[in-house]
Amino acid sequence: MDAWRKSLLEGLRFDDLGYYQSLGFKSGLEIHHQLDTRTKLFCHCPVRYRNDAPDAVILRHMRPTLSEMGTYDGTALMEFKTRKQVVYHLYRDNVCTYEMDDTPPFPINQEALDFAIEIALMLNCKLVDEVHITRKQYLDGSIPTGFQRTAIVGVDGWVPYRDRKIRIQQLAIEEDACREVSDVGHQVVFRTDRLSTPLIEIVTKPDMRTPHEVAEVDELLGRLLRSSGRVRRGLGSARQDVNVSITGSDRVETKGVPRTPDIRALTHYEALRHKALIELRDELKKRGITTETFRTKEREVTGILSSSRNPRIAEIRKLGWPLVAIALKGWGPLLRHKTQPGMTFAHELAGRVRVIACVDEMPNLFVLDGLGEGFSVEDETRVRKAIGATDDDAVVLAWGPGEDARTSVNEIIARAKEATIGVPAETRQHLPDACRTDFERILPGPDRMYPDTDSPPVPIARDRIARITAQRALRPWEREELYVARGVPVGLARQLAIHRHARMFERLIADKTADALLLAVAICEWQTAIRRERALAGKPRCWPDEAQLEQLLKEGLAKKTPRPALLLALKKLYAEGIVEVPEPLAHREVGEIWARVQEASKDVKYKTASLTADYLTGRIMKESGWRASPADARGIVGKHLSI
Amino acid sequence: MTSPDPLKGYRGRAREVLKSHQARVWADVEIETEDGVFEGIVLPRSEQADDRHMVLKLSTGYNVGIAVDRIRTVREKGFREAHYKIPEKEFPFDPAKPNVTLLGTGGTIASRLDYRTGAVIPAFTPGELYGAVPELADIANLKTIKLFGVFSENMGPNEYITTAKAIGAEIEAGAAGIVIGHGTDTMHHTAAVLTFMVQSSPVPIVMVGSQRSSDRPSSDAAFNLQCAVNTAARGPIAEVMVCMFGPTSDSYNLLHRGTRVRKMHSSYRSTFRTLSDIPMATCTPNEVKPLRQDYKRRRDDRNVKVDAVFDDRVAIVYYYPAMKPDIISSLVDNGYKGIVIAGTGLGHVNKPLYEPLREACKKGVSVMMTVQTMWGYAQMYVYDTGRDLMELGCVPCANMLPEVAYIKLGWVLAHTQDRAEVAKMMIAPVNGEITEREPPDGYLVFQGGLPEVEEFLKRGWR
């Protein structure tokens, strides 16, 4: 994988604005981040993840319903075609009858709404005056109700990026979906622990012009969210979807990009896929194949292939599944048209078949063009003849259990027909190489949105906004500026700006005389070091009580506790949960220690007086239990050695 | 279908402001507020909502509320009225399939969203119902009659009588079975009343509803309907039954005898349970599997007896400690002819009620005793209280459910007001409202947390 990935990334310049502008590259982000609330969004379950065996298991199915505007949504219909059995794993402690869809929602979690408002303000959004909870249909089963409860909190925001603004289309608050355990054939299994965890979704306008910009803006927004102090951290707490379009293509969404840096390659190759599909459309047009003139032929060829020695065909025959050949009239070798590295248009067909017909064991179709697939010339000739295909036609072979074979054929034809239009609007998933993508589902439209009749609208009062504005977190760039002005180095300020204790830092440096650098080092670097040390020793990963930490730092500053002693006190807080900040030793006490050290080390002599002084200072520090002021100790020694 | 009111649902201040801007619902508008511009379609507003906001549907499909007092201008760019309608298709007819009549009374099995009130309203026509659940055509030929469209709490004697008569007429006209779409809240009351009003039916009479309205993808409505139509078309049990989810999983439905069933949870799918007995059968969209043999068989004749009468001067008194005598006497003074008491334990009330109860009986009011424990029998010989109450004239109704006793008493009182006659009819079961015995598996309310129950839940749906 690494060598393959390296070969895909070789020589690419993701920030080549001229090149991407020539493609008409446009990209926007949808960032989902869980809010750090105590309970879930529409019930009172605690937010907690589980990896143990479920306490109960239930089975459901999903059916599409009409939208409020009176139509069925495309995704909804597609997912109904798949007719999946949806199995949910339930947990007694953090799943209740709400998540099971056996109880209507409780009023929306106000803490979560406060957090969402705060983040909307940080993004310069216009707040709505009344939050309307809406149902967004998802028929893949990831939410037992069949819809996600979601609501717009703010619209039309922006963040500064380089010399311009990136526009924020909207910020919504919504409930998280289940985690998928497995998806095989017609059965999908979900774990419900994560379900209904509050999260925010931030949608940017397609303002990014190169893959590099998309990654940078993703990082910028990620930092802004972390700086709010209102979001969860750790694996799975944040997910981003990336939208890409180029001149002549519709928006295509790639779901769940794992890491920010992967955005670059994913958007690049997605844009190239669009280019390839547009070229394909133009080629088809040149051959006179349009939506109107698009023709196919199909025929069951199970009998014709009864003597085939292709091992996959033998397997399928053993299963008793029908084999159907489809001729795409006039398509010549176009099924081999390259769409992404190592992928052709046939993969577009296979993706649809995998998801919609649930024929998910690969390969799930063959292209009969003499270029492989392990068919004999005789087999191919017989099939082509049976279906009346000429040399100008492309032939695909599809199969599946029972009705799924029919669905496969229909999907192959439908997808091929869409090639005459160009790039279908769809949702895609990334492949393990984090560069290429494959079909996930049809892109849902606004038709899948309904008002949630179980929840009343929630007005956002002006005084609530005022209260939140007064306490809202500084944006990371505002923080960095403030911290640097107080003497914190740029790199450390950047780290601290998204640190969970940034607000504490700001409270502590409100005292203009406070040593901001010491605080920054203690909060960022000391804590990191202590946490790493504890992790290596196999101790539990946890943060100290915030009030205790703040007390410790405050006392340390007030008492002017020497740094080494303060660090020891911090370790003690981690280890024992107690705050003990020692006073620095008085000059006289340091003098007494010096007398003892001097006596014990009278024979010590280093190359230079300065080195000797360092050693003696260290001895005093150690003897004092690190409570002597280093400057004081060095002063006394220096005086003695006359340096 | 242009709405007569261009500001549907808006009132007070909101209406005034929108009117001044010449805004109207379903208009595609650009609204300038103090904060900036919002674009979208003006939606009708729920009448219960405040008069300070307007609702806008953005192009993304989301709805937002905007404070009317912050609006500066409204510019109409277009108009797009929604037609929330399931394509109404004529039900296909197949002479080889049985004919089932679906009677609609309302409830969430046949409902859609009302954007004016923001609520679920019973409003599908039966034809739309087929548009939503086309699988029904694979089961039977369906004739649909909309009797009324009411929430089930609004069902009452008039509706009971109309429904019973409609059932009788349909059976006589040759229906292979009857399905009644009904709200779930009082489905068990109606199931009981139909058991008494429509006797010796030759075909199944199946009541069905849904706990998740049909505007939701996870709705149980489609599955319930298919199960009910199949039970009516082919099922062997010619009784009034309730057909609803067995477990909360989409797995199978239970058929409950109309007189032994009760809604036991405010929102669960599997809310209907048979009490003090086992259900009649399990069923799916293609089969009915009886769990017992003591059911009335399907017949080929059309000899149904419809006895649709009801006297509504009946009340249930749910006894509570320290109940005062005036609760009883006020009913008597107001002309009630029958009182069903849901007593404590084996069928008890406190001493202060003795006197008014004696008075009631003396005045010819029939007083029936049931138990608020739901499961088990009123057994009034066990304690003095019970014997005292019987001596006053209270009639113990064995293991008849309080709601069923209420329904039956209303039906009986429409036949006779004679107390002895009433008592006799009350304790002579029509169809299972009193059973001679409660089997050992008739009372099963499992408790979570027990290892064996948790084990069961882990493989629950399989």
Can you characterise this structure?
By secondary structure, chain A is α+β, with helices and mostly antiparallel strands. Chain A has four domains: 2-43 and 109-177 and 197-282; 295-419, GAD-like domain (Gyrase A, domain 2, 2-Layer Sandwich); 484-576, no CATH class; 587-641. Chain A is built from 20 helices and 23 strands. In chain A, strands 1, 4, 6, 7, 8, 11, 12, 13, 20, 21 and 22 form an eleven-stranded mixed beta sheet that branches. A four-stranded mixed beta sheet of chain A has the order 2-3-10-9, with no helix packed on it. In chain A, a hairpin with a 6-residue loop joins strand 20 and strand 21 (437-442). Chain A is elongated. The mean pLDDT of chain A is 91. Chain B has 462 residues and is of the alpha/beta class. In chain B, 24% of the residues lie in helices and 24% in strands. Chain B is built from eleven helices and 23 strands. In chain B, the strands form six sheets. Chain B has an eight-stranded mixed beta sheet with strand order 9-6-10-12-13-14-17-18, sandwiched between helices. In chain B, strands 4-3-2-1-5 form a five-stranded antiparallel beta sheet. In chain B, strand 1 and strand 2 form a beta hairpin. In chain B, helix 4 packs parallel to helix 9 (402-413). The longest helix of chain B has 16 residues, at 157-172. The model of chain B has no long low-confidence stretch (mean pLDDT 91). Strand 5 (130-131) of chain A pairs antiparallel with strand 4 of chain B.
